[in-house]
Amino acid sequence: MRRRWRRNHLSNAPELNITAFMNLMVILVPFLLITAVFSRITILELNIPKPSDNNPTELNKPQMDLEVIVRSNSIEIGDKQRGLLKIVTATNDKSDLAEVSDLLQKIKVRIPDKSDITLLLEKDIDYERLVAVMDTLRVAQIEKDGNRIRSELFPVISIGDAPVIRQQQSSRNPG
């Protein structure tokens, strides 16, 4: 008797009922796909500042080589040929960036074809500050008829290191 039971038991493998599991997968997979957050990567193309070129054909054109130098306590806006245009004191409420944007909008009105600008940074500038300044250089938020419009300023940004400010030497001579 035992042999027959063993033979029957080993020869008849039980059937797996996976219907409940399949029902769960049919519901779970679309739910997970719908609720999944797909990451979006934004790439901003940056350039290295070009060395100054003195072509005789280019000298006849009045052109500006705009530079924005971001320091820990100020933002300096200048032109490579004409020198410093304005120094804006850095603030925590980002009103300094609004002032920079206003000046750049005035420059863009004078030179509408210009699209490049050089951004120079001191060593210890925060990444968030860098991104905020780059956004200010690229586009301006203009309010027109109660609507906010994005206007392109200088989308081609070259990035580099800011020149070091040399401390003024004391008036007395050592030794």
Structure explained in plain terms:
The chain is of the alpha/beta class and about 180 residues long. The protein has two domains: about 1-35, no CATH class; about 45-50 and about 65-160, Nucleotidyltransferase, domain 5 (2-Layer Sandwich). It has helices at about 1-10, 20-35, 55-60, 95-110, 125-140, and strands at about 45, 65-70, 75-80, 85-90, 115-120, 140-145, 145-150, 155-160. The strands form two sheets. The protein has a six-stranded mixed β-sheet with strand order 1-8-5-2-3-4, with helices on one face. Strand 6 and strand 7 (about 145-150) form a beta hairpin. Helix 4 packs parallel to helix 5 (about 125-140). The longest helix is centred in the first third of the chain and has 17 residues, at about 20-35. The termini are far apart.
Notable traits:
175 residues; alpha/beta; Nucleotidyltransferase, domain 5; 2 domains; 6-stranded mixed beta sheet
